[in-house]
Amino acid sequence: MLSSALLLSLSAVAVATPATAGTPEHSSGPTAASVVDAIERSAHTLRSTDPEGGLRDLSALGRMVKDAEVVGLGEATHGSRDFFRMKHRVLRYLVERKGFRTFSLELPWSSGVRVDEYVLYGKGDLDRIAREEFQGSYRIWNNADYLDLIEWMRAHNRHHPTDPVRFAGNDMGYAGPELYRRVTDHVARAHPHLKARVAALYDGLAPATDAATYMEQYLELPLPERKKRAERTLEAYELLRGQRAVPGSSRREHVRTVQHARAIHQMAKGYSYDITDEAQVTEMMKYRDRVMAENVAWWHRHTGDRILLSAHNTHVSYEAFDPRYPKTQGAFLRDALGGDYVSIGFSFHSGAFKAFGTDDVIRTYRVDAAKPGSNEHTLDRARPRDYVLDMRTAPRSVRTWLAEPRPTWNIGAGWPDPVEYRIALGEAHDILIHLNEVEATTYLGDR
Taking the mean position of all CA atoms in its chain, how far away is CA 94? Predict the structure, then answer.
């Protein structure tokens, strides 16, 4: 997600509407009844989305994930508690049974730094961090379910201080003032000959307001000014990248500082596109997904952690459902990691979610049961209420059915935005988690 203004004005995260009544259940190939029967035979029932419940029913998911280094876990809405609670539950399983050690969220890199220091060391107050960092369109993450997940990570680390779990943001929508300070402080200590130049390049760029105001005002700057800022942040990044760690400064500190400078440039570069030009917007969205993938790959490369990546279905998928997203984070990660990346999508039949209205206010919305012709209508006819399905190894009739695009719920951060997505689920993800009904999360922002 980016700033609220950009999100709403560009409909950056589109929303699908289900098929209208009377849409054919299939055009060719296996019948709906045979597909439903095959799903029932191959799906693994999920007993609960409760993150505090038992984990035995997730063992099938563990076998599907195998030895993947990064698992992308999507969501079919940006505001339903059941997706978030299920992510918490999957994280618990992957940490306790599969050795995963990082949770990476569709959140700015700099915000992730603050959350990571909270889960590692208890630094700061989580409610305050959430209020200050989860702003603009990111404020939808300030909900009870995600804060519960982060508190679980903190509790885990209190009991396992020598084997902690970590939190990483990977998005480019904001670079906080502490990120600039970390870079300039490191330069002053380790590369004093660059101090004046880096200070000049960053002069006036660090946020001096709250995050939401900063993001809104940044996009109001003239395009030439935004391009100039991107040139300045690129020069600072390249200057620092060209240095070597010096005595008294660890290589780890240097590498991480270079990444901070890179994150600062990623934001400036992302906002240097012309948002009034449709082609430029498409390029910006491609750049954003590439940045999110590169940041996840960087984290994996430099920490060695196995990572659970949390984002919208659109981002973790292999296929672009919308021409405004010409290449997705999942596709970039597959390029970088090959079979070490696995994508898990979510689907649901009906329910509620939080989303931004056209007035930028977060409200609860509800959608009725998916209609005939949609993916969910057939998926929900299978006997398990909630289940996980390995779409790579499902019976041939199911794989044939999953290879055909059909209307699918794909609800992002804004509502309404009636763009119908036709998704071939088997091309988009490796694994599918289907939930019969979802409810809206409890939003904690604007308090």
Answer: 17
**Best CA proximity match to 115, nearest among 183, 164, 166:** 166
Dist CA 229 CA 202 (whole Å): 9
8 A C-beta contact, residue 103 and residue 84: no
Token digits of residue 221 = 């700057």
What Cα–Cα distance (Å) separates residue 422 from each residue in 18, 181, 211, 394?
A: 9, 45, 35, 21
pLDDT tens profile 355-367:
999 999 999 999 9
* Separation CA 69–CA 175 (nearest Å): 27
Judge whether 251 and 245 are in contact, CB under 8 Å: yes
CB 188 within 8 A of CB 249: no
Task: Give the separation between CA 164 and CA 394, rounded to whole angstroms.
Answer: 36
The band of 106, judged by pLDDT with boundaries at 50, 70 and 90, is very high
Rg of the chain on CA atoms, in Å: 22
The whole-model pTM stands at 0.94
Phi, psi of 16 (to 5 degrees): -90, 150
d(CA 131, CA 210): 10
As beta bridge partners, residue 363 has 355
Torsion, Cα of 420, 423, 428, 434 (10° steps): 90
Distance of CA 232 to the CA centre of its chain: 28
- Please give the C-alpha separations between residue 214 and each of 132, 206, 210, 211, 393, in angstroms, as whole numbers: 12, 9, 6, 5, 47
Do residues 435 and 87 lie in contact, with contact meaning Cβ atoms separated by under 8 Å?
no
What is the C-alpha to C-alpha distance for residues 80 and 436, in angstroms, rounded to an integer? 13
